[in-house]
Amino acid sequence: MFRALRIGLQPAATVYVQSVVEEESTGNGALMAHLRGYKADAVLIPEPEEEMLVRANVGVLWFQVEVRGLPVHVREMGTGANAIDAAYRIIGELRQLETEWNDAKAGRDHFADIDHPINLNIGKIEGGDWASSVPGWCRIDCRIALYPGDAATQASKTILDRIAAFARSDRFMSNNPPKVTFNGFRAEGYVQEAGTEAEAVLARAHKAATGRLLQSFMTAGYLDARVYALYDKVPSLCYGPISENIHGFDERVSLASLKRITGTMALFVAEWCGTEPIS
């Protein structure tokens, strides 16, 4: 793109560059850009996606479960109720729900051949006050995925009903029900349908920049592309460089891959928007 500018060319149509916050913690940055009225004919998001196009993306729910126990001295722990132990029992029930949702992948395009498309993560746990008292409280923070087409509202209700039913079967929690709060993500998944002209332009740009045919795949994480796919209903092309250890130690992308992807993006803009002399 910069080479094009140096030889006196610029895009012949308007190009918006959005740099938004919070893809990792609610997706509200992209959502706010949508609500403020920024619109385009297509969206290209350079998320690190192994030089492939994301064909489908899960939705995500975050929720907290809070359990209250009955604190007593550890010497009399049989007369109390351990909130941390109770939280682990709830986790066991949520794992069963996760298994059932994964079993429901049969017949779903882009998901049926994936070993474990729906992932439940117990991302944080807090509880108790010190080692010599039965803990009187525990809170877990959870994340679970949804299939595209599954409503976040219905999935939330399923989780609420499942935890409530389990609590009624538990000797202590039947009289001390846990509290469930949905916080952060409440996002539905999407499928980027094949056959759009924008994808064809990206495929040509990718071939020119890398020498390879464009491949696509399903990713089981959240992407801001879903805002544009679901709400703006425009081609939402999520495509970016090769990465390693995302959300882990030494998170990084390949610089050689980043250079190739930059070339793809420049060629995509040039063909999609056309070029004209800089006035």
Proportion in helices: 25-40%
Number of strands: 13
Q: What's the CATH superfamily of the largest domain, by name?
A: Zn peptidases
* Main beta sheet: 4 strands, antiparallel
Give me the number of helical elements. Answer: 7
Which spans of ≥5 residues are poorly predicted at pLDDT below 50?
none
Output the structural class: alpha+beta
CATH architecture of the largest domain: 3-Layer(aba) Sandwich
Question: How many domains would you count in the coordinates?
Answer: 2
Overall pLDDT = 94
CA distance, first residue to last residue: 17 Å
Strand order of the largest sheet: 5-6-4-7
Highest CATH level, the class of the largest domain = Alpha Beta
Please outline the helices and strands.
Elements: H1 2-6, E1 9-11, H2 28-35, E2 43-45, E3 53-57, E4 59-68, H3 83-103, E5 120-127, E6 137-146, H4 152-168, E7 179-187, E8 190-191, H5 197-210, E9 216-219, H6 225-232, E10 236-238, E11 243-244, E12 252-253, H7 255-273, E13 275-277
Parallel strand pairs: 2-10, 3-9
Antiparallel strand pairs: 1-13, 3-8, 4-6, 4-7, 5-6, 11-12
Helix pairs in contact: 3-4, 5-7
Description:
This protein is an alpha+beta fold and 279 residues long. The chain has 2 domains: 2-57 and 192-277, Zn peptidases (Aminopeptidase, 3-Layer(aba) Sandwich), CATH 3.40.630.10; 59-187, 2-Layer Sandwich (Alpha-Beta Plaits). Helices cover 33% and strands 23% of the residues. The chain is built from 7 helices and 13 strands. The chain has a 4-stranded antiparallel β-sheet, with helices on one face. The chain is elongated, with a radius of gyration of 24 Å. The chain starts with a helix and ends with a strand.
